[in-house]
């Protein structure tokens, strides 16, 4: 009868805990509203989107450039780049935190067992049994020994009455998703940097090839000028000008070689290798491939950007912190129970007469803490507003990045035709002026000017072609990994 009276209030408390659970704090259903356009200013055409999301598979975007060396380097970033490895470890840590928070929803069970034997030294012995059941062996000289065994199994559980624990789990899960997005962002950034450095290296190869040809041409011009000078046709100043031009070209060649070495070292670090053990073969006639950018690029592609996804998940995590802070205004309930026994022998340890059980429930409520709880709630709300502001700024910056790169891709593609035309014309002028100089019709200063103009035109064309590839890589990064994996339909 007594046990029944004790169990009734405990069962009632458990039922109330299970049925009265209520989540305290604001709900989070959709990301904060950001005033965004339906299309990019620099884009063309009308479109409708399919269903983009940051978890959508983007595919190996670097294959758009049709370069097997670049594809190999980008794939090595996945497993060897240390920044990516650090982001992967942070994601694993976030996953473990989710499991840790989820464990708080379940009871904690503990087991404690002990065995002790004590005694004093003496002469002869007699064996007696005390009223507590312990066996005592007493010696004639006053010595005795005592044996005791005990075990206790207990459990405690805090019901999630106000949703504090479930919000902690939800916040940890949002943090895990944000860490996953950070991992994707780190991977995309490293792969984009590899591509940009690789294209810069190939540009250096092309520039070095052009400068080598220029140096060879200037050496021939110097020989011609020396011959004319020795024949008394040209002045000494012509020889000095030719020597100056040749020395400058050789210095420019060394500068390009230094730049190529630095780019090669940077690529080595990005793929997780020491620069001393990494090298890329020079390819002066490297074919330049620039992927075609779709005429209509939906602005909803930005939903695939990992930095936007991470910022949005941080907002959700900050929202859960508000509910966690507000739950401190309400009492917490804890249920506990235990079963144990103690005896002088192992055989008697599990007998019904030695078992002792206990059930309990406790409620705790803070009465006064000088406004600390309210301050925590205010801090959580301020943290939420900060996360919202960062999310909106991330979205706006993403639109700016895409607009910049779309404008760059469009303008650079138009400049290529003009640079090619300028380079062809400069080459013809250079040859004609050199022929007229050999015929004694013009001074050497005109030759120098024509050759400098032709060289600058050729190098500007190579630089522009590399810039087009760099702009394509930057656009792919701005769109969260390219435009593949989406089906866009032109609007009518």
TrEMBL record:
Coiled-coil annotated spans: 239-266
Q: GO cellular component annotations, sorted alphabetically? A: plasma membrane
Show the stretches that span the lipid bilayer.
none
The answer to whether UniProt assigns keyword Membrane to this entry is yes
Q: Which GO terms describe its molecular function?
A: efflux transmembrane transporter activity
Which UniProt keywords are listed?
Answer: Coiled coil, Lipoprotein, Membrane, Palmitate, Signal, Transmembrane, Transmembrane beta strand
InterPro entries assigned to the protein according to its UniProt record, in alphabetical order = MdtP/NodT-like (IPR010131), OMP_efflux (IPR003423)
Q: Where in the cell is it found?
A: Cell membrane
Locations of Low complexity compositional bias? 126-138
Q: Where is this region: Disordered?
A: 116-141
- The leader peptide range reads 1-22
Topology of the protein relative to the lipid bilayer: Lipid-anchor
Top-level lineage group: Bacteria
Q: What Pfam families does the record point to?
A: OEP
Q: Which PANTHER family match?
A: BLR4455 PROTEIN (PTHR30203:SF33), OUTER MEMBRANE CATION EFFLUX PROTEIN (PTHR30203)
Family the UniProt entry places it in: Belongs to the outer membrane factor (OMF) (TC 1.B.17) family.
Identify this protein by name: Efflux transporter outer membrane subunit
Please tell me the species this chain comes from: Ramlibacter henchirensis
């Amino acid at each position: 009868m007594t046990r029944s009276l004790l169990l009734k209030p405990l069962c009632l408390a458990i039922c109330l805990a299970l049925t009265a659970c209520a989540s305290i704090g604001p709900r989070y259903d959709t990301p904060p509203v950001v005033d965004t356009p339906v299309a990019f200013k620099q884009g063309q055409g009308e479109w409708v989107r399919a269903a983009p999301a940051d978890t959508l598979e983007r595919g190996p975007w670097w294959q758009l450039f049709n370069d097997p060396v670049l594809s190999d380097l980008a794939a090595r970033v996945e497993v060897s780049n240390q920044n990516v490895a650090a982001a992967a470890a942070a994601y694993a840590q976030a996953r473990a935190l989710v499991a840790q928070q989820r464990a708080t929803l379940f009871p904690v069970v503990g087991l404690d067992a002990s065995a002790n034997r004590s005694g004093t030294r003496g002469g002869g012995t007699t064996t007696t049994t005390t009223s507590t059941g312990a066996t005592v062996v007493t010696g004639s000289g006053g010595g005795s020994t005592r044996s005791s065994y005990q075990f206790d199994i207990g459990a405690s559980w805090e019901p999630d009455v106000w949703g504090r624990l479930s919000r902690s789990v939800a916040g940890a899960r949002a943090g895990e998703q944000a860490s996953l997005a950070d991992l994707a962002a780190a991977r995309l950034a490293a792969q984009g940097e590899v591509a940009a450095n690789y294209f810069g290296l190939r540009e250096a190869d092309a520039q070095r090839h052009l400068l080598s040809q220029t140096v060879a041409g200037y050496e021939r011009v110097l020989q011609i000028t020396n011959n004319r000078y020795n024949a008394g046709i040209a002045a000494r100043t012509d020889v000095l000008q030719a020597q100056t031009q040749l020395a400058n070209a050789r210095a420019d060649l060394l500068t390009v070689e230094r730049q190529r070495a630095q780019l090669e070292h940077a690529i080595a670090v990005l793929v997780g290798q020491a620069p001393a053990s990494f090298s890329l073969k020079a390819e002066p006639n490297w074919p330049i491939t620039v992927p075609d950018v779709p005429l209509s690029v939906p602005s909803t592609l930005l939903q695939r950007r990992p930095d936007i996804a991470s910022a949005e998940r941080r907002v959700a995590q900050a929202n859960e912190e508000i509910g966690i802070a507000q739950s401190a205004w309400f009492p917490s309930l804890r249920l506990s129970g235990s079963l144990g026994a103690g005896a002088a022998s192992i055989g008697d340890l599990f007998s019904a007469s030695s078992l002792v059980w206990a059930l309990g429930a406790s409620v705790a409520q803070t009465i006064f803490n000088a406004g600390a709880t309210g301050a925590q709630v205010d801090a959580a709300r301020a943290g939420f507003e900060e996360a919202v502001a960062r999310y909106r700024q991330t979205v706006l910056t993403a639109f700016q990045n895409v607009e910049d790169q779309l404008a760059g891709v469009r303008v650079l593609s138009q400049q290529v035709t003009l640079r090619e035309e300028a380079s062809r014309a400069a080459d013809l002028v250079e040859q004609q002026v050199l022929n007229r100089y050999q015929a004694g019709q013009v001074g050497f200063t005109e030759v120098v000017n024509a050759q400098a103009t032709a060289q600058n035109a050729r190098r500007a064309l190579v630089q522009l072609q590399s810039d087009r590839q760099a702009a394509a890589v930057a656009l792919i990064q701005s769109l969260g990994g390219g435009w593949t994996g989406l089906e866009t339909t032109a609007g009518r």
